């Protein structure tokens, strides 16, 4: 038992540091899972080669993902993929090939458990915090050292408690909640803090909804987005064949928070982030009617089966607007298969959608789905920075799968509450 009450961040990091630590402490910790992707992984491997450390301390939980440019659109990226495949063979590290899915979705599906420390060379590594793990993004060199030595260091972050109450109204989802929160505190409002999500509403959330919240914690500058573990966590792990990895992780009474943010979701409306920052948020009514050239449903934020279900129900029997392209990318191969079995893929194809292989798709902008000059996209991804989808002259609006589906039909930003 800790000497004084601990937040989730303090508790999880203490467990891997082997001693009690608190906000502001700098400590060395054991790393359970390390991850790189095809954009950041080659640099990590090259750094290990320079340091004469081509090794993996824990190869079974060192994962190399080919997901950002998958399949590869050009020879330079193909060569980068070879670097990861070769490192995997040399060290025994796991390789998640093109088509298997986005790193963050694959990590929660297969590799991460409550109480783990995960470091990944990708900013949205914080997604796994929904499983009660301290999961955070780092630079390629830091992750490379973690791969080779199985250790890293942290400054233990202070924590903001996000207390969520109320019932979601029709047409309002976890994506609207996290966009509202980021708009409320700003894109740098939680820099190097942990966001701890709790409250009666959080207790009722599915794992998928929790993943959406944790995924976008970094868009407020946060180091991690964290959830207590509960029966929902346990059921998810059991479904994944990891029920024996469940452990209860709860906040101590009296834990100290730097800030407490209360949100009643019953007062929320469908929320949109306008170009070119995630915190540039408005309610859907303020931008309804804005012409949209492309709709993109997928990514590590909203590419799970319940996201696809929401979109499929709206699109069922409808057809996309003739002037609006519709791209759909399941977040993993498993989700793709589920969507096929449930008939969602057929619904999307009949609605005029383009279905792409599981992966990041157009989100990063290195291959299919890039915008033309002046075009606007409504996407379910997590970022809308200038140039994010391959063109600095493009415009990206962020919204929920429901907003995206309604918009695809209308050809302009549309309120999903009118079609649900």
UniProtKB/TrEMBL annotation:
Alphabetized CDD domains for the sequence = IPMI (cd01583)
A single GO molecular-function term is: dimethylmaleate hydratase activity
Q: Record's InterPro entries?
A: Acnase/IPM_dHydase_lsu_aba_1/3 (IPR015931), Acoase/IPM_deHydtase_lsu_aba (IPR001030), Aconitase_4Fe-4S_BS (IPR018136), Aconitase_4Fe-4S_dom (IPR036008), HAcnase/IPMdehydase_lsu_prok (IPR011826), Homoacnase/IPMdehydase_lsu (IPR006251), IPM_dehydratase_rel_enz (IPR050067), IPMI_cat (IPR033941)
Keyword field contains Iron-sulfur: yes
Keyword annotations from UniProtKB, A to Z: 4Fe-4S, Amino-acid biosynthesis, Branched-chain amino acid biosynthesis, Iron, Iron-sulfur, Leucine biosynthesis, Lyase, Metal-binding
NCBIfam families tied to this protein: hacA_fam, IPMI_arch, PRK00402.1
Instruction: Describe its assembly.
Output: Heterodimer of LeuC and LeuD.
- This chain belongs to the protein called 3-isopropylmalate dehydratase large subunit
Give the originating organism: Methanimicrococcus hacksteinii
